[in-house]
Amino acid sequence: MKAVRIIGYEQAVYTDIPVPIPTPDELLVQVKRVGVCHSDVEVYRQELGIYRTGGASLPITVGHEWAGVVVEVGSRVQDFEPGERVTGECGMGCGHCALCQQGLHNICPERVEMGVFNRDGAYAEYLTVPAAHAHHLYDLSFQEGALVEPCTVGLWLARRAGIGPGDRVAVIGCGTVGLMAVQTARFFGADQVVAVSRSPFKLDLAKKMGADTTINISELSVADAAPIVTKDQDFNVVIEATGVSDGATLALRTAAPRGRVVVTGVFEKELQLIDFNTIMPKELTVMGSLGGPTVFDEAVELIRKGQLKVLPINTHSFPLSEGPQALAMVAHGHPDMVKVHLDCSLN
Question: Is residue 62 part of a domain?
């Protein structure tokens, strides 16, 4: 089968590899569509610590935001049949520890992450996925199905932040996760949702996805941007979705005293220069948010009912054969690019 493999630093190839064989507890899925995520870029640039410490190695087929059709089920699988549309989770825990027993396999110390480390992903014509981590898409399109995973990230971070009526939310960064955060904050009933970005194109999208107000901080330093963002505002919830140190510092400076700050951006390096002196004087609560465990089925239903919109963030699509070029484009950035998809049916 055809697949896109990362074989070295900023080296991705479109190549032939064997079709994977499912275990008795797995599904074999024909991939129809897969998203290009910044986590893929981290693998592409070898920025994940687990690769540097020897806990994972190349080559790997990346891709964890996918939709496809079941073509074969393992002998012990009961809840899926060939022909059904499915998607699946990225983080797959050991299944036995206390975290996994709570459904928090996304932070299991022994987890693998499909398409990120220690398990091949969906930049391929076929993949295998444990049935325990697969989810029905029902009548969703493959385009919508490949956007379910980013939607779960937005749902999960909103839950982590406890967003609800009365909250005033600022979202720093309007990439895929930031735009989903804008929409889920609105969905959970926040009184005010403000989107902050350097991209006019992405701010326009944020407005369409539920932001009350947008703030363009292009060409401003953090020191200059913070008073502009907080002018006449009192944000008790701030979502950091940039993955850069200036964004994290801006998030901390934007939060009101006793505010809640959720860090969900994927940072390119392990060590960052961030203004932590803001946390203690304002008694901020700072928390991380990774993935979207336990909310996949909820995300599917909310998209099916039209309560959450995902299609606007899919700004670009390419055939799987152009996966290496698409990955390089995302790695180097583009002002009007949000979510890039690889359409495996175009090969």
Answer: yes
